[in-house]
Amino acid sequence: MTFNNFAISSLSRSGSTFLARVMDKSEKYRVYHERDEHVVQVGDRVTVQKRFARKDYGEVSSRLRFVLPTLNVKKKGVILRNPFDLLVSVCNRREDMNEYIYTFGEHFKTLDKLVGCADVVIRFEHMTTSATYLDDMLRRFGISDVPITDELVHTRQNVSKQYHYQCFRELPLRWRRVFLNQCEWFILKHGYTLAAPQTY
């Protein structure tokens, strides 16, 4: 049996909370965010797959990146966020960046694989600024009953309580060098520029 369902994943700090909450406004679909993350984290695809044995169901979760390529769902999606912005957002959340900075290379390799298996690639920068773009993304996953307004698009979710860094250039030099050394290939491959804009 083929169910009308979908799974969307991303790296952390890429708008999955925002997208899930918008999608879950649908009267037809039930959309979850970060459901049973401890199970997904260990890569238990069988347990996760059972959750999708229902119609009009979806999940948006960074944890799904561990199992998304092998999940059997009608449609798969991945959220891409500008890598520089993503890094700054992560640095404002984590206290272990001196060690965690060395993991980004593997994270972006995983994300690249997700792009390869995704039916829809969702750009964070467009999703959070354009009502037309967000509406189109929802419709690609079968959701057409959520009114998308400019106010909704600009509603921020999961905001950091404090900001230690406002832009990429404010990060410690070592972090920036390690990040670019590990992730330059991804930045170029997916259409981003190495010349960090003035907003970074």
List keywords for this structure.
200 residues, Rossmann fold, five-stranded parallel sheet, 12% strand, globular
Tell me about this structure.
- With 200 residues, the protein is of the alpha/beta class.
- It has one domain (5-189): P-loop containing nucleotide triphosphate hydrolases (Rossmann fold), CATH 3.40.50.
- The protein is 41% helix and 12% strand.
- The chain has 10 helices and 5 strands; from the N terminus they run E-H-E-H-H-E-E-H-H-H-E-H-H-H-H.
- It has helices at 16-23, 37-41, 45-51, 83-91, 97-100, 104-117, 124-127, 131-140, 150-153, 173-189, and strands at 5-9, 30-33, 57-60, 75-80, 120-123.
- A 5-stranded parallel beta sheet has the order 2-3-1-4-5.
- It is globular and about 50 Å long.
- The relative contact order is 0.18.
- The model has no long low-confidence stretch (mean pLDDT 91).
